[in-house]
Automatic annotation (TrEMBL):
Protein name (Swiss-Prot/TrEMBL): CCHC-type domain-containing protein
GO molecular function per UniProt: hydrolase activity; nucleic acid binding; zinc ion binding
Keyword terms of this UniProt record: Hydrolase, Metal-binding, Zinc, Zinc-finger
Top-rank taxon: Eukaryota
UniProt entry tagged with the keyword Zinc: yes
Biased composition, class Polar residues, residue ranges: 1-10
Gene source species: Euroglyphus maynei (Mayne's house dust mite)
InterPro entries: Peptidase_aspartic_dom_sf (IPR021109), Retropepsins (IPR018061), Znf_CCHC (IPR001878), Znf_CCHC_sf (IPR036875)
Pfam families attached to this UniProt entry: RVP
CDD domains according to UniProt: retropepsin_like (cd00303)
Biased composition (Basic and acidic residues): 30-39
Xref: Gene3D superfamilies: Acid Proteases
Bias type Low complexity, positions: 40-51
Length: 202
């Protein structure tokens, strides 16, 4: 049986003699480079674009101990000589007030609510909270919620301890105080303190 002379073989792919297109090294190399480019293109497509990174920063999220106050309890204080009823929420990492409050420092950001939805934040303000004769300066975020929320940052600032008998024990300027809290079911809802979980910033 005669063996076919390799010198008579001509490759349809590269035009060289000695092999056929099925065994062409040039073809395999080209295919490999094409596959690599497709892989890089796919990788780049999955990377965030510049526009994706221009979204407002997220300043806080819900903590796992958000249900520690049951039912929710409210604190009556004075801010700018006006009585204000605030939700005292140790499940919220930050304090946030409604968007009708003045903004001292504008910076758009977002906060994540108890149900996972996002809350638009307009900026920050420094307020003076007066309770039991104590004047306490505190930074709050201003966002699209309906009821002022004093979060864990405020509770920690005053070394607050929320008792089951609806009493807040706190310390300020090396003095100890206690103040009655108001359960949610006893709050006058006409004051605008009826909030959904989606409105509680974290």
């Amino acid at each position: 049986k005669k063996t076919k002379n390799r010198s008579s073989l001509v490759c349809d792919n590269c035009g060289r003699t000695g092999h056929t297109s099925e065994n062409c090294w040039s073809k395999r190399k080209s295919s490999s480079e094409k596959s690599k480019k497709q892989s890089e293109s796919s990788s780049n497509a999955s990377s965030p674009s510049t526009s994706d990174q221009d979204v407002p920063k997220e300043i806080a999220s819900v903590s796992k101990d958000m249900d520690r106050i049951v039912p929710r309890q409210f604190l009556r204080v004075k801010i700018d000589r006006k009585p204000v009823v605030c939700l005292l929420d140790n499940g919220s990492k930050i304090s946030m007030f409604p968007s009708n409050w003045p903004v001292h420092h504008k910076e758009k950001s977002i906060a994540r609510a108890a149900n996972g939805s996002l809350i638009d934040v307009r900026g920050e303000s420094t307020i003076t909270i007066v309770m039991k004769g104590c004047s306490i300066e505190h930074m709050v975020y201003i966002g699209n919620i309906e009821t002022p929320v004093l979060g864990r940052d405020f509770i920690q600032k005053i070394s607050g301890d929320i008792m089951h008998d609806h009493i807040l024990h706190f310390s300020w300027n090396n003095q100890k105080y206690q103040i009655d809290l108001v359960p949610e079911d006893k709050i006058n809802m006409s004051c605008g303190t009826n909030m959904t979980d989606a409105e509680i910033a974290a």
